[in-house]
Amino acid sequence: KVNGIEFAVADLSLAEAGRKQLRLAEVEMPGLMALRREYADSQPLKGARVAGSLHMTVQTAVLIETLVALGAEVRWVSCNIFSTQDEAAAAVVVGPNGTVERPSGSAVFAWKGETLAEYWWCTDQLFDFGDGRLPNMVLDDGGDATLLIHKGVEFEAAGAVPQATEEDPEEYTLVLRTLTDSIARDAGRFTRIAKEVRGVTEETTNGVKRLYKLAKDGELLFPAMNVNDSVTKSKFDNKYGIRHSLIDGLNRGTDVMIAGKVAVICGYGDVGKGAVESLRGQGARVVVTEIDPICALQAAMEGLDVVELDDVVERGDIFITTTGNFDIIMADQMAKMKHNAIVANVGHFDNEIDMAGLAKIPGIEKIEIKPQVHEWVFPATADREQHSILVLSEGRLMNLGNATGHPSFVMSNSFTNQTIAQIELFTKQGQYATDVHVLPKHLDEKVARLHLDALGVRLTKLTKRQAEYIGVDVEGPYKLDHYRY
Ligand code: NAI
């Protein structure tokens, strides 16, 4: 803690370098900057204490400073062990007007390359705003902060945190340990947090799935805003963001020539569609796998071969998982791949690729080529000589682990939704039921509108008669809620 600001970052002296990047990012984030101007006087987030868990990148730094500009107090962690940009984390702590000696920004607990134990320690730091003050808003990406609160409340009610069993994955064991320590320090803490929190705004597909499950099981403890399913989020960030950052990660990680290679994209949802374009744009020969007949048909109509993974496992050069599901590429399939085939994931969690199974193959060797790039060497067998595959970011989000995630402009769309969602849930307490909501369409349209000028887009204005003819208001919304874009 320095000058009243608590933090745990890699190196505070990186703040100046971070600030330079923030300055550039602000120009590319017109939605967030417009909200800063719109709400400069009214300060709708005054009194909000936002616990944020979302990749601590340069773009997120601009989001954090926007929330602060709207009146909020913020504590932040990354939602992934590799995704922090250390200079952005430092810049947020130092703040726009502080110095390294006298930081005056926000509390951040994040650095690139956390261990999983450190990750959960950081997440637990989110909930103590000092002087016994608790968060009253959560901003989440993937739902880990929300998970900790919900599990904490469950175990407080049960009177004990269960012991981890042998079968529990390492990560759940760490969650249980974090909760044990946290509740030992302050029993009843999570129950009080859950009472205090007015709502959570969730960034990504996987986190949203967790929220709908909690709501369906009657276990959701506060209202939730599904930011992912704003059209201006999932149809932009998931698709155009990945189109940009997937090859960025591949290039920085491996610099392998993409043209001509056979690339296998597992999953043809929003992220998968962006991934396909990313690699096709480089001249890769792309095939996809899908379980959903609609998405599979879409892929075929786009001229893509839709295959089963086993059909191409020996032919593919680059394998990318985008499903949000688990056990997509298994160890025995990786063993059959070409020498130096690249295997990487851009889905939210690291269980799409069977990393645990890979490590258990007898005689396998893991060589670090550089951080977040590993060669796994399979021993020679009777019918095959020694060969390797390259795994990026240890199977975690490679566009954030090997590169710097999506670029500012597309994240401005996502984060303008986040900020508006925070304002909605914070200022309209009691108006949103304890359920999962999406932003009303006029706000979704507003997010898009805020990004048009920067691209020189000239929107055609509907006449009153035209508006009546198609049954909408001149000012929008222009589509019915079920329209799919
Ligand atoms: P989505 O639901 O639109 O797409 C996932 C697709 O995978 C679906 O079409 C589904 O049918 C398919 N799928 C599921 N199981 C499969 C299997 N066994 N084999 C083949 N296909 C399968 O979800 P979306 O929005 O594309 O997100 C996917 C993942 O990416 C989520 O985990 C999300 O949180 C994450 N995400 C990552 C980002 C990044 O920057 N890396 C950005 C946005 C989302």
From TrEMBL:
Pathway this chain belongs to: Amino-acid biosynthesis; L-homocysteine biosynthesis; L-homocysteine from S-adenosyl-L-homocysteine: step 1/1
CC cofactor note: Binds 1 NAD(+) per subunit.
Catalytic activity of the protein: S-adenosyl-L-homocysteine + H2O = L-homocysteine + adenosine
Protein location: Cytoplasm
PANTHER family cross-referenced by the UniProt entry: ADENOSYLHOMOCYSTEINASE
A GO cellular component entry from the record: cytosol
E.C. no: 3.13.2.1
Lineage: Bacteria, Bacillati, Actinomycetota, Actinomycetes, Pseudonocardiales
Binding of substrate, residues: 57, 141, 203, 233, 237
Enzyme's top EC category: hydrolase
Cofactor: NAD(+)
Organism superkingdom: Bacteria
Name by which UniProt lists this protein: Adenosylhomocysteinase
Domain S-adenosyl-L-homocysteine hydrolase NAD binding: 238-405
GO molecular function terms listed in the Swiss-Prot or TrEMBL record: adenosylhomocysteinase activity
Main location: cytoplasm
Chain positions recorded as NAD(+) binding sites: 238, 267-274, 290, 325, 399, 406
PROSITE patterns listed in its UniProt record: ADOHCYASE_1
GO annotation terms (biological process): L-homocysteine biosynthetic process; one-carbon metabolic process; S-adenosylmethionine cycle
Source organism: Amycolatopsis coloradensis
HAMAP family for this protein: AdoHcyase
InterPro entries given in the database record: Adenosylhomocyst_ase-like_sf, Adenosylhomocysteinase-like, Ado_hCys_hydrolase_NAD-bd, NAD(P)-bd_dom_sf, S-Ado-L-homoCys_hydrolase_CS
A Pfam cross-reference name: AdoHcyase
Family: Belongs to the adenosylhomocysteinase family.
Keywords: Cytoplasm, Hydrolase, NAD, One-carbon metabolism
SMART domains, sorted: AdoHcyase, AdoHcyase_NAD
